[in-house]
Design brief:
By secondary structure, the chain is an alpha/beta fold. The protein is 38% helix and 25% strand. Strands 10-9-8-13-11-12 form a 6-stranded mixed sheet, sandwiched between helices. The chain has a 4-stranded parallel sheet with strand order 2-1-6-7, sandwiched between helices. β3 and β4 form a beta hairpin. About 3% of the residues have low confidence.
């Protein structure tokens, strides 16, 4: 058998890659009124501007169920579970509780991706590729941790109020993201979302986003991901610019943010992730 890799639905990995590499995905939840809708499992039609729409992590019970099925599928070889940053969600902590309750806890390793979206997805992808090649549990785990530690993530959003209201961005950063003041370029640092810099216009903000990604990618080849929420044209333009400016791109993925992240980032959000050295 082989090590099985698990992630959560916020990872935004294309379905074809999930199927190809047998990655198990735990759905997170969008809360609309009194309904808890599982991302990636049930259809979600939401108003991203509504103040009443929120999200929630997977529960320890949900995570334990997926971990146990994955462990059985591995034939005892083990499970590596890669989740979005514990600074941004309770999912990693719920996973830790789930593992504590398992009889075979030594065979399940948790990884804090230190990011969100494809900043979780690419470490998952790297780990799953190692697992498919027959690597043992320790190597698969180390691959996910190393990939996560190299990843650099940047976001442009139209509104910061949703992030501030959800406790994922400071009030000061939210102020600087006011439509009347500036266009904020955000970044994830050690799992936390922070204001990197600001620009007066959207075009200047895009230029700063591209410059930040190119600088972070280095010159030895990188995996690159571009994400968006209903901003496909902008994402494709960014992808084209990065393809020209980053030498030796090893992989380029363009994907849409799922509803769970979309609730917090808002319509028109775009993000760029670079992993220097690529994904194994």
């Amino acid at each position: 058998m082989a090590v099985v890799v698990v992630t959560d639905s916020s990872a935004s990995l294309p379905a074809a890659l999930v199927d190809e590499l047998d990655i198990a995905v735990v759905p997170l939840h969008v809360l609309v009124g009194d309904r808890a809708i599982r991302e990636g499992v049930e259809p979600i039609d939401i108003d991203y501007a509504a103040d009443t729409v929120t999200t929630s992590a997977a529960s320890p019970g949900e995570l334990r169920e997926v971990y146990e099925r994955a462990l059985a599928r591995s034939g005892g070889d083990g499970v590596v579970a890669v989740h979005l940053s514990r600074q941004l969600s309770g999912t990693w902590e719920a996973g830790r509780q789930a593992v504590r309750d398992m009889d075979a806890a030594d065979h399940v390793r948790l990884v804090d991706s230190l990011g969100a979206g494809l900043a979780t997805g690419l470490p998952t992808l790297a780990a799953a590729r190692r697992a498919r090649a027959g690597a043992p549990l320790d190597i698969v785990y180390d691959t996910a941790v190393a990939t996560a530690s190299r990843a650099r993530t940047f976001f442009l959003v139209n509104r910061t109020e949703q992030l501030r209201r959800g406790g994922r961005l400071s009030s000061a950063a939210a102020f600087f993201g006011s439509e009347l003041v500036t266009k904020p370029l955000l970044q994830i640092v050690e799992g936390r979302l922070e204001l990197r810099e600001k620009a007066r216009t959207r075009s200047k903000a895009y230029a700063k986003l591209v410059a930040a990604a190119v600088d972070a990618a280095g010159e030895d080849g990188a995996a690159v991901a571009v994400q968006h929420l209903e901003a496909a044209e902008a994402a494709e333009t960014l992808a084209g610019q990065l393809r020209e400016l980053i030498p030796g791109i090893r992989e380029l993925i363009v994907a849409e943010f799922g509803p769970v992240l979309g609730v917090h980032l808002g319509l028109g959000a775009v993000g760029v992730l670079v992993v220097p050295g690529g994904c194994a």
